[in-house]
Design a protein that fits this description.
Blueprint: H1 4-28, E1 33-36, E2 39-42, H2 43-67, H3 85-95, H4 101-120, H5 123-143, H6 148-166
Antiparallel strand pairs: 1-2
Helix pairs in contact: 1-2, 3-6, 4-5, 5-6
Length: 167
């Protein structure tokens, strides 16, 4: 979503609600004219202008959202990582014959985010990504009924392999 869309929508909603409020409040008091910045407006004209402009701004924000593409500027170039045949083979040896689709997804996401953290020099994010990968792999391996002592060994092997591949 384009960042201007919520701002335009909020201004439109405020204008719309102000028009409705004044129409209801002053209409009940039977006030016919409103003095705004020294200029006199009739109640229906002021209400129509504020409600109409609010509605128009809301519709404009919807149209901007639908028709104006927005791609945020990225300082760091996203490198596409694919596991090489050697690392895929080594992962197969380490993890055994379990279904690795989810673990491969975790690893692919880890590689992208970890690379970005290394490029920007953010060590805290890199450490958190390592913890997240270890947790996700541990959970997935426990689902497959692997012995807890083997799980830690396998996770450490995979993490060492991935860190060596990133350098």
């Amino acid at each position: 979503m384009h960042p201007i869309v919520p701002i335009i929508m909020a201004i439109g909603a405020i204008s719309f609600l102000v028009g409705l409020f004044f129409l209801a409040r002053l209409g009940m008091q039977r006030i016919k004219e409103i003095n705004v910045f020294g200029k006199v407006y009739t109640l229906w004209r002021f209400s129509l202008a504020s409600i109409g402009s609010g509605f128009a701004l809301i519709m404009l924000s919807v149209l901007i959202h639908q028709n104006v593409p927005y791609t945020p500027a990225s300082d760091v170039t996203q490198a596409e990582f694919t596991q090489s045949g050697v690392s895929d083979y080594e992962l197969g040896l380490i993890l055994g014959s379990i279904d690795r689709n989810l673990i491969d997804n975790y690893i692919a996401q880890f590689q992208k985010e970890y690379y970005n953290a290394l490029v920007t020099g953010d060590k805290t994010t890199a450490e958190l990504l390592l913890l997240e990968l270890k947790y996700n792999m541990r959970t997935e391996l426990e689902k497959h009924g692997i012995d807890p002592s083997q799980i830690e060994e396998k996770i450490n092997h995979v993490v060492l392999l991935l860190q060596a591949q990133q350098k």
